[in-house]
Design brief:
Helix 2 links the parallel strand 1 and strand 2. This protein starts with a helix and ends in a 13-residue tail after the last helix. The chain has about 280 residues and is an alpha+beta fold. The strands form three sheets. Strands 3, 4, 5, 7, 9 and 10 form a six-stranded mixed sheet that branches. It has a two-stranded parallel ribbon with strand order 1-2. A two-stranded antiparallel sheet has the order 6-8. Helix content is about 40%, strand content about 15%. It folds into two domains: about 140 residues, Spore Coat Polysaccharide Biosynthesis Protein SpsA, Chain A, CATH 3.90.550; about 70 residues.
């Protein structure tokens, strides 16, 4: 599904850096072609679609370096992206996660509480509460010493899609560790534009199912069942109303909101995040 963009991603990474690709499609032809074309790339096939978090864990447990750079296939680095992060890492306090920044300033790939103030204006690295998971460097040598990460399950594998990075960052912050963003280190993220046109509708269904499921699971994990129900129930009510509205006018959007409803119901009933997009390679 990401084959049309992954070459731009790989070519933006310096050739002296070893790359591990975890492919959830179990596409042996893709593995052979990619490893033949790029000598610094190793492709691991998972038998099943295990999701973002589990896939990241899989790759991170295959390396023996002090740092691991999580990168989605639809991300392109600039020529100085990694050099700027290395330079910044020597200037900041100890960190467990450090990340580049999106070129598109209207779509920041980080979050922090407003009361902490706006980031500095001197392009210096700044602390945040969380960063998006499509581009982040994990300080594995530091994380592995923390009680929360001794199992080397950095990402919660119960989450198939959405909020797995928020969960990781929350556990890092709760351990008293720092998360930084480096303004001089730029990346371009294609996002939804990377999805093949023929898969877009099925992916949209999957996103809506998992978006609601993950929101319920995340809030339940950190605030209990009632907290999750109260926070996510408005989404369920809205989705139910829109599903019925589009059903009566026979608009295909009814399925999208139907999948939101299903995501909520399965999470509320304590069922696992089982839904997988129906994609044939």
């Amino acid at each position: 599904m990401s084959e049309k963009v992954i070459h731009d991603c790989i070519n933006s990474i310096p050739r002296d850096i070893q790359i591990i690709i975890v492919d959830n499609s179990n596409n042996k032809s893709f593995k052979n072609d990619i490893e033949k074309k790029y000598h610094n790339v190793r492709c691991i096939l998972s038998e099943n679609n295990i999701g973002m978090g589990a896939g990241n864990n899989y790759g991170l447990n295959e390396i023996d370096t002090d740092y691991g750079f999580i990168l989605n296939p639809d991300v392109v680095l600039r020529s100085n992206t990694i050099d700027e992060i290395i330079f910044a890492s020597k200037k900041v306090d100890t960190f467990s996660i450090i990340a580049p920044i999106m070129e598109e300033e209207n779509y920041p790939n980080y979050k922090f509480e407003k009361k902490k103030g706006v980031k500095n204006l001197n392009d210096e690295p700044f602390k945040v509460d969380s960063v998006d998971g499509f581009a982040m460097i994990l300080n594995l040598s530091r994380l592995n010493k923390l009680e929360n990460f001794k199992s080397k399950k950095y990402f919660d594998e119960n989450i198939f899609l959405y909020l797995e990075n928020d969960d990781l960052c929350k556990r890092v912050s709760e351990s008293g560790e720092n998360i930084y963003v480096v303004p001089k280190s730029k990346i371009k993220h294609l996002g939804a534009k990377a999805v093949d046109e023929k898969y877009k509708y099925e992916i949209e269904l999957s996103r809506n199912w998992h978006w609601v499921w993950s929101k319920f699971y995340f809030n339940k994990k950190y605030g209990g069942y009632l907290n999750a129900f109260i926070k996510v129930c408005p989404i369920f009510i809205s989705a139910t109303f829109k599903m019925l509205m589009y059903f009566f006018i026979n608009n295909k959007k009814k399925r999208i909101y139907f999948y939101r409803v299903l995501g909520f119901l399965n999470a509320a009933l304590g069922k696992k995040s089982f839904y997988r997009p129906k994609i044939n390679n």
